[in-house]
UniProtKB/TrEMBL annotation:
Pathway(s) the chain acts in: Purine metabolism; 3',5'-cyclic GMP degradation; GMP from 3',5'-cyclic GMP: step 1/1
Region annotation Disordered: where it falls in the sequence: 186-228
Organism from which the protein derives: Notothenia coriiceps (black rockcod)
Protein name listed in UniProt: High affinity cGMP-specific 3',5'-cyclic phosphodiesterase 9A
Role, per record: Specifically hydrolyzes the second messenger cGMP, which is a key regulator of many important physiological processes. Highly specific: compared to other members of the cyclic nucleotide phosphodiesterase family, has the highest affinity and selectivity for cGMP. Specifically regulates natriuretic-peptide-dependent cGMP signaling in heart, acting as a regulator of cardiac hypertrophy in myocytes and muscle. Does not regulate nitric oxide-dependent cGMP in heart.
Documented EC number(s): 3.1.4.35
Domain of life: Eukaryota
Family listed: Belongs to the cyclic nucleotide phosphodiesterase family. PDE9 subfamily.
Signal sequence segment: none
Length: 251
């Protein structure tokens, strides 16, 4: 639902054209805020409320997490989020809530721009659709006397140059940064290493005995273990995706 009810015109247009969405959200990620709002409006309907059996605290956490991740897909925040993640990768700790949240933000961003790491026969038709959306926006901006981004101008952009620039300066740097967070198991001792230099998890990471660890620590440990497991496949796919993308673009 991170692009739910997308109107086909990006945040820059929303702000410059002073649309209802830009006014409603004070020019701050108007589209992403709208996607969140529409999603939870749908969830609030009795026949669509997939969270109806959740207790209030669990729902609060899910809602906050959803909002955080959807807002992270605003490309205006790309540099901010990636820089924050880079500061954590060398000593990444899955049990640290801030580290875990930052990783999830980067992973949803990887998903958001993942079209270019798919096989060419899958990716190229979507690139054509995206460029047509860009051209429609730039045509309207010209008609309304608004600023036009060069990468959206049908008179200036070509598909090869647009794709190579995006892949080289946005996609590959982010995927390669994600790949620096390693996930390794060290047997039954319950220790794992994360980060380029390896940050040890505490002994008893997988322990579930209340006699050995407190309830809150166990919850964090189980959550971290789940994130670890899900991340293994993602990191493997990142390596494959970067290699495939480099071969397609000769970067």
């Amino acid at each position: 639902c991170h692009d739910l009810d997308h109107p086909g015109f990006n945040n820059t247009y929303q702000v410059n054209a002073r649309t209802d969405l830009a006014v409603r959200y004070n020019d701050i990620s108007p589209l992403e805020n709208h996607h969140c709002a529409v999603a939870f409006q749908i969830f609030s309907q009795p026949d669509c409320n997939i969270f109806s059996t959740f207790d209030p605290e669990s729902f609060k956490q899910i809602r906050q997490g959803t909002i955080t991740l959807i807002l992270a897909t605003d490309m205006a925040r790309h540099g901010e989020i990636l820089d924050s993640f880079k500061q954590k990768v060398d000593n990444f700790d899955y049990t640290d809530e801030e580290h875990s949240t930052c990783l999830k933000m980067v992973l949803i961003k990887c998903c958001d721009i993942s079209n270019e790491v798919r096989p060419m026969e899958v990716a190229e038709p979507w690139v054509d659709c995206l460029l047509e959306e860009y051209f429609m926006q730039s045509d309207r901006e010209k008609a309304e006397g608004l600023p036009v981004a060069p990468f959206m101008d049908r008179e200036k952009v070509t598909k090869p140059t647009a794709q190579i620039g995006f892949i080289k300066f946005v996609l590959i740097p982010m995927f390669e940064t994600v790949m620096k967070v390693s996930v390794q198991d060290n047997g039954d001792e319950g220790q794992s290493n994360g980060g380029a230099t390896g940050t040890p998890f505490p002994t008893g990471f997988h322990c579930s005995s209340p006699k050995k660890v407190g309830r809150s620590h166990r919850r964090r440990s189980h959550r971290a273990a789940r994130v670890q497991g899900e991340s293994r496949e993602v990191f493997g796919n990142c390596k494959i995706a970067v290699a495939r993308t480099r071969s397609h673009t000769h970067i």
